[in-house]
Design a protein that fits this description.
The complex is a heterotrimer of chains A (354), B (543) and C (305).
Chain A (H helix, E strand, L loop, with lengths): L4 H10 L3 H32 L4 H6 L5 H10 L6 H13 L13 H36 L4 H15 L2 H15 L24 H7 L3 H38 L2 H8 L4 H31 L1 H6 L5 H10 L3 H29 L5
Helix pairs in contact in A: 1-15, 2-15, 6-7, 6-10, 6-12, 6-15, 7-10, 8-10, 9-10, 10-12, 12-15, 14-15
Chain B lengths: L13 H11 L18 E6 L15 H10 L4 E4 L2 E7 L2 E6 L5 E6 L13 H14 L5 H4 L8 H4 E3 L4 E5 L6 H7 L10 H6 L8 H4 L9 E7 L3 E6 L12 E6 L3 H10 L4 E2 L4 H6 L6 E16 L4 H4 L1 H8 L4 H6 L6 E3 L21 H9 L8 E7 L4 H14 L3 E7 L1 H9 L5 E6 L6 H8 L15 H4 L5 H12 L3 H17 L3 E14 L6 E2 L6 E2 L6
Chain C lengths: L6 H8 L6 H18 L1 H18 L1 H4 L31 H37 L1 H16 L2 H12 L3 H28 L2 H8 L4 H37 L11 H8 L8 H28 L1 H4 L2
Helix pairs in contact in C: 2-12, 3-5, 3-12, 5-6, 5-8, 5-10, 6-8, 7-8, 8-10, 10-11, 10-12, 11-12
The chains are: A mainly alpha (354), B alpha+beta (543), C mainly alpha (305).
């Protein structure tokens, strides 16, 4: 996994000697392996205990006994669960996540189609969240208790407290149905479908690369509303946490010392307090991004967004276990990856942790 | 733009789109305009919930949306034409003869047909398509196994005799008219043998490839299916009935009824397929939109698991018939989309029983319930689907049960959880629906009335009677007799009789029949929305 | 806030030299309350939650029905004097349902909190404090749970446990404890090497003592802030489960499920999904405001100012 690299290099820069460096890689690999096993095991077990019948998912509810049994054996469901798990794990290690019942395609292919859609949406969301959330949080903390603080807090609170799918519906009603400012649900107007060939899966990038600007702008337009909905949540959380962290720092003695020394307020805030907040902030932004990735299910439903969240949920209801485990693992691995990166950054930025 | 040859783009200008996107980061909005968008002239765009599609091989398709798609992509052995939805006619075959004893059907190939691939349609293809259903043994194969066909005898039972004749032998007691109806179902689709076999893997007769590709001769060619996203079909200019007017048909996955309505009102789609009664009513004042009603063959019923002593008591089952507020529901949340219907075969067809003898009568139900021993702490579960109108129906029934002194709890599930539970006989009361697999009353009678082996081990999960642990020897015999009878009048009489008998005593309380409301832009004409998914035709649509 | 304490008690509470630990504790609480009640935003949150609790307690007195009885002829009526918030798709009074629903909401958040906080605290502080392989093991488990798409895991768990409110609560708890462990660990890591902990250690305090008296109380504030922040999320997750048929079962007036079943009426009968949406919004905001207020009061670090 590529995400491992930053922390490895960070470790290497610090400790040039080879053995600790290798040790670090080994421990990382071990950690990843363990998490991977845990992830698959838990999903697999839940998939097995669930009262949903994977055979019925394939044959439907009117099948004869003979058809049912044929599929039952073909899926290997007669084997002991440990054997089934072993078969699954070994094929995953060969890069084979199995075939999805729902889409009749290899799960890996599906993920490559659905995941970029979520990635695109979550990225827009986190950009909105950080660009607006961080300055708002700092502003609120600096002006603690004043009107602007209350204002920022209320705005942030709204974003955090509002039921996302309700908000999505209401905003579609207002900004699409009534005011006609933004395009409606979907990732792109259907009649543009199939014009851009998939390279990265991120429509904005693909259409730009292929110079299909009509498609590009259409897709960009479709990103606005769901992006803002997701972004509002991110903004609220980032602003809250920034304010919280900043208040912590501003009450520290070094800030007092700096002030006493006659340093300008701006310098105190940004050069000292904010720099220290940065560490925690990175973790929070990382976590928020990851939660946008996995938590966009409801937004995706309201906006008919063909993302990984919808893919996993639908698969779950269709008892499409290969798809559920595959999708969950990809999202899970991203989550872990993001955590590791923020951990690594933590170590780089904060000398105390070393 | 070179890839975009056939499509006209009469939509909002890209410049404005660009402005929107540029404003995105600022979350600033630009002045609105009330202009309604338009879909391209030669393209039909539908908003529909298509999450039921799991594959598109005609030997396996058994879901509503999938059936509708293959009905437009494949021609069938027997079929109905859009101008007469009640007359069974030859599709890929020109004519048929039934032998004196009713055991042999001879089919004459319609000459001059071509598959999408350009290959000619031959008798070989027809035989291959039917044999394939049995050999693959997928869910709908039961439609053909009731002919007595199995993997060992199907090569003999289905024979391409020469270039123009196919001979089918019926090995069971099934009457030939039922068999002909069955040939008009999805499994009767004619598959391009040469194309399918060129994609064969491990002897799968092209199954894997056909799950998401098509090899048919119908009016449309399947171009693209993205699960829970979109289905795109393109017109087949060589279709035997002439080239369809709409060059493209696109089904867009929109699960929310409210979102479908929005898209329709904005002109982003031409048609909304899953509106609720209230959504459809909300469109009433809009001159740009028309709402059509189409009677469907789906019946909505409550079933009672007879395995339980209390629930199995015929008095209890009768009481439930009087605890359904048929008129109240049809007059409110089911308005315009459902009508009261109380027998297992839908009304408006041959052999339909139109009587509706039951109405809400809590007192009568109470007195019936007093005749049976009900434990003081008796509580039952009402299982149903987690969607409209099932949960509303369940809540209404719950309230009436409560008025009659029966406590109940509602359990909502997705179909994939509910059906296994139902098939395992783990329900008490279930509110569900049923649609025939082909338009012959045998399709429903076989499920509602016929249960030759009521033991749990028998696992006759495809039959509703078995699922509700209910079996009656007389009724079984009647069902078998009806299926085998050659005389049409005799068959009709038996089916009417059967329906009456099931109204009198059975675990089934049939309540409603669906009347689908389809909302379209007013300029969209000629879309045929027949009573079942097999009978939805895109090819005459214009706009 | 309401009763003005008589001078005797006030003097006792403000005395410069508390005579007992009890008095010291009461003093701290009183001071905290003074800070808290001086903060209008926090008070607003407090009042909202208070109103929620009162509504739940007195539901039978302030409603005209049980919120469950259907009257199909009265369906989808707009707000009026007879039905303050209108009626829903089955002709039930929405005001009644909102008030009775407050009980459901309170039950959900209370149960989840009771399960989640102790689990998160124990795992997080122990991992952070002991470090080494214990830390490694506990954090790997935490990571695995963190790595799951939470709604999906909750869904899967409820599918296994069977639908219903209690199972939904359990599933939410199982999927939400991990961030608490992480936060508690992060806090512990920064506290672990601080001077006062070193000092206590030098005085011979045992690990258990250090954890319970020094580390846990300091972690508690962040955990409680997080919990109040999460309350909205918990309510929404419960709603999501209800929406998918796995949480509260009808006709129980759970707000999220009310939005879910009412969402198809947004265009024409806006009040059906809007009222429960507003209820969730207000209550979530209440919890968040309260969380902020509590942070200012409870956080010993800021209290030291």
């Amino acid at each position: 996994m590529a995400v491992v690299d930053p922390s490895v290099t960070a470790g290497a820069a610090k400790q040039p000697s080879l053995p600790p460096f290798l040790l670090k890689i080994a421990s990382l690999a071990y950690t990843l392996g363990l998490t991977f096993l845990g992830l698959t095991a838990v999903t697999f077990i839940i998939g097995r205990v669930m009262p949903v019948d994977p055979v019925i998912a394939i044959v439907g509810d009117r099948a004869s006994k003979e058809t049912y049994e044929a599929v039952f054996f073909a899926l290997g469901l007669d084997k002991p669960i440990l054997v089934q798990y072993w078969i699954y794990i070994t094929s995953v290690l060969r890069g084979d996540f199995g075939t999805s019942i729902m889409t009749a395609r290899p799960v890996l292919t599906d993920i490559l189609i659905f995941f970029p859609a979520t990635l695109e949406l979550a990225t827009v969301g986190i950009i909105i969240g950080v660009v607006f959330g961080v300055p708002m949080g700092v502003l609120a903390a600096v002006n603690q208790g004043r009107l602007i603080d209350h204002f920022v807090r209320i705005v942030g609170l709204f974003g955090y407290s509002v039921p996302v799918f309700w908000f999505g519906m209401v905003s579609l009603l207002v900004f699409y149905a009534r005011l006609d400012w933004f395009p409606g649900p979907g990732r792109i107007e259907v009649y543009y479908d199939g014009i851009v060939t998939q390279v990265t899966g991120v429509i904005l990038i693909d259409s730009a690369l292929q110079k299909e600007w009509t498609v590009f702008w259409n897709a960009a337009g479709h990103l606005v509303l769901p992006g803002i909905i997701l972004g509002t949540f991110a903004l609220a959380y980032v602003a809250r946490m920034t304010r919280s962290f900043m208040l912590d720092q501003l009450s520290q003695e070094y800030v007092l010392t700096a002030r006493v020394k006659g340093m300008s307020e701006l310098a105190v805030i940004w050069r000292h307090a904010f720099r220290n907040v940065l560490i925690q902030l990175i973790t929070i932004i990382g976590l928020t991004f990851a939660s946008l990735l996995e938590g966009s299910v409801l937004t995706e439903t309201v906006f008919a967004w063909p993302g990984i969240g919808q893919y996993i949920t639908n698969s779950l209801f269709n008892s499409d276990m290969n798809a559920v485990i595959g999708g969950t693992m990809v999202v899970g691995m991203c989550f872990i990856g993001i955590n590791m990166i923020s951990d690594a950054l933590y170590k780089i930025v904060d000398p105390r942790v070393r | 733009m070179t890839t975009n040859s056939g499509i006209t783009r009469s939509w909002r200008s890209p410049v404005r789109r660009g402005a929107l996107a540029a404003g995105m980061a600022m979350a600033l909005a630009i002045g609105g305009n009330a202009a309604v968008a338009e879909t391209p002239k030669d393209m039909l765009v539908m908003a529909k919930n298509i999450n039921d599609i799991i594959n598109l091989d005609p030997a396996e398709v058994f879901e509503f949306t999938g059936i509708e798609i293959i009905a437009n992509v494949y021609d069938r052995v027997m079929t109905f034409e859009p101008d007469n939805l009640t007359k069974l006619v030859g599709g890929a075959v020109e004519s048929y003869q039934i032998s004196e004893d009713g055991k042999t059907i001879t089919l004459q190939l319609r000459p001059g047909q071509k598959f999408h691939s350009g290959n000619p349609v031959t008798t070989e293809d027809i035989a291959f398509s039917l044999q394939r259903v049995i050999k693959l043994n997928k869910t709908p194969s039961f439609i053909f196994t009731q002919f007595g066909w199995d993997a060992d005898n199907v090569d003999d039972s289905v024979q391409a005799v020469d270039d123009s004749t196919v001979k089918l032998s019926i090995l069971s007691d099934l009457s030939a008219s039922v068999a002909l109806s069955a040939l008009s179902s999805g499994v009767g689709s004619v598959v391009d043998k040469q194309l399918a076999m060129s994609h064969e893997e491990d002897g799968d007769l092209g199954h894997k490839w056909l799950q998401s590709n098509s090899a048919g001769s119908g009016p449309y060619i399947l171009k693209n299916w993205k699960s829970n996203e979109i289905v795109t079909m393109e017109a087949n200019p060589d279709f035997r009935g002439g080239a369809p007017t709409m060059k493209r048909v696109v089904m867009r996955h929109v699960p929310e009824a409210a979102a479908q309505r929005l898209l329709l009102e904005k002109g982003d789609v031409d048609m909304a397929r899953n509106l609720t009664p209230d959504q459809a009513a909300g469109l009433a004042g809009n001159a740009d939109i028309a709402v059509d009603s189409a009677g469907k063959s789906l019946v909505y019923y409550t079933a009672i698991n007879s395995e339980n002593d209390v629930l199995g008591n015929p008095k209890f089952q009768e009481a439930v018939r009087y605890l359904v507020d048929y008129e109240g529901m049809v007059g409110s949340f089911l308005k315009n989309q459902y009508k009261v219907h109380q027998s297992f075969w839908p009304s408006g067809f041959w052999a339909s029983l139109e009587d509706t003898p039951f109405a809400l009568d809590v007192d009568r139900a109470k007195s019936l319930l007093q005749e049976i021993d009900i434990p003081a702490d008796f509580t039952l579960n009402i299982d149903t689907l987690n969607e409209s109108p099932f949960q509303e129906i369940a809540q209404s029934i719950q309230q009436r049960l409560g008025e009659a002194g029966i406590k109940s709890e509602i359990v909502l599930s997705e179909g994939k959880t509910l059906w296994p539970k139902y098939r395992a006989r783990k329900h008490d009361l279930i509110v569900a629906y049923w649609g025939p697999d082909y338009l012959d009353p045998h399709s429903n009678a076989d499920s509602f009335a016929h249960n030759p082996d009521n033991r749990l081990e028998a696992q006759l999960g495809g039959k509703l009677a078995w699922r509700n642990a209910w079996s009656d020897d007389d009724i079984n015999a009647l069902t078998e007799k009806a299926a085998a009878a050659l005389d049409t009048a005799e068959r009709e009489q038996i089916y009417l009789d059967l329906q009456k008998r099931l109204q009198d005593s059975s675990p089934f309380v049939v309540m409603f029949q669906q009347n689908e409301q389809l909302a379209r832009r007013a300029n969209v004409q000629g879309f045929v929305n027949g009573p079942s998914s097999d009978l939805v035709f895109y090819r005459n649509t214009t706009k | 806030m309401s009763a003005i304490p008589n001078p005797g008690i006030r003097a006792w509470l403000l005395s410069e030299s508390p005579e007992s630990a009890m008095q010291a504790r009461c003093q701290r609480f009183y001071l905290a309350w003074t800070t808290f009640s001086a903060n209008p935003v926090a008070m607003a949150g407090f009042l909202i939650i208070l109103a929620l609790i009162l509504a739940a307690l007195f539901a039978p007195l302030i409603t005209g029905g049980d919120g469950i009885h259907q009257e199909l002829s009265q369906r989808l009526l707009p707000p009026s004097t007879a039905h303050w918030f209108g009626t829903d798709e089955l002709g039930r009074d929405i005001y009644d349902r909102i008030v009775w629903g407050s009980r459901v909401t309170l039950r959900i958040v209370a149960l989840v909190g009771i399960i989640v906080v102790p689990i998160g605290l124990i795992i997080g502080t122990v991992a952070g404090f002991l470090g080494g392989w214990v830390d490694n093991l506990l954090m790997r488990i935490t990571d695995i749970f963190l790595a799951f798409p939470r709604l999906i895991l909750a869904l899967a768990l409820v599918s296994v446990l069977g639908p219903g409110l209690e199972n939904a609560v359990l599933a939410i708890a199982i999927t939400t404890w991990s961030p608490y462990a992480r936060i508690a660990r992060a806090e512990t890591l920064t506290i672990r090497n601080s001077e006062f902990v070193q000092a206590a250690r030098a005085q011979g305090a045992s690990s258990a003592r250090l954890l319970t008296y020094h580390i846990v109380p300091l972690c508690l504030s962040s955990v409680i802030i997080r919990l109040t922040l999460d309350m909205a999320g918990i309510i929404l997750t419960a709603a999501g489960l209800g929406f998918l048929g796995l949480g509260a079962q009808p006709p129980l007036p759970e707000w999220g499920a009310m939005i879910a079943s009412g969402r198809q009426f947004l265009l024409d009968q806006w009040w059906v999904p809007t009222v429960p949406g507003m209820a969730i919004l207000i209550v979530s905001m209440g919890f968040n405001l309260l969380g902020d207020g509590l942070r200012d009061v409870l956080d010993p670090k800021s209290a030291a100012r």
